[in-house]
Amino acid sequence: MAREDEYDYLFKVVLIGDSGVGKSNLLSRFTRNEFNLESKSTIGVEFATRSIQVDKKTIKAQIWDTAGQERYRAITSAYYRGAVGALLVYDISKHTTYENVERWLKELRDHADANIVISLVGNKSDLRHLRSVPSDEAKSFSEKNGISFIETSALDSTNVEQAFQTILTEIYRIVSQRPMPESTGTQINGGAGSSHIPIRLPPTNPVSDSKQNTSCCS
Q1: Which domains occur in the chain, in start order?
Q2: Locations of Polar residues compositional bias (predicted)?
Q3: What's the pLDDT tens digit per position in 28-37?
């Protein structure tokens, strides 16, 4: 079993979307297999890591989560910097969170690298009796915008693993097939013992399963 500091690729993936759609619980479910019913809105930034295997390569995912409220937009640029993947999350039971997806997508494309891999995630699929966003509508939107789509439930774990595995595998396929120019800002770290050319992300202090709760306005 590889040590935590041994990996072939380090991918930064960001979670975006309105506050309260379940971004923090998607993060904790994937990285720690935990769910908090009383989860409160994230203040500042939190990230956690988890390693997976793809084609016998160790992929270390650094998943970032931040609050969705407008008043935290000051951290936008730093949050997106170096990200190679993004999960754009909405709540299937709250149509307003879906209506804001287009704005989030625009913000993402304004601030992130042009080649970032994006997946639209309809979370809280366990609330099917309260559904206000038809799956077909969201799927049509994702196809129109050239992004993937999946529905998840952080509560009962439905498709959470698949959502992260899919986007990380897609990033790996792209990165492994062609060298990414250093000027893109989407550089991937080679870990200890890696045979790949070391490519750097901006310094993020990627401590295993750690949290960084930092106020944006301090």
Answers
A1: 9-177 (3.40.50.300)
A2: 206-218
A3: 999 999 898 8
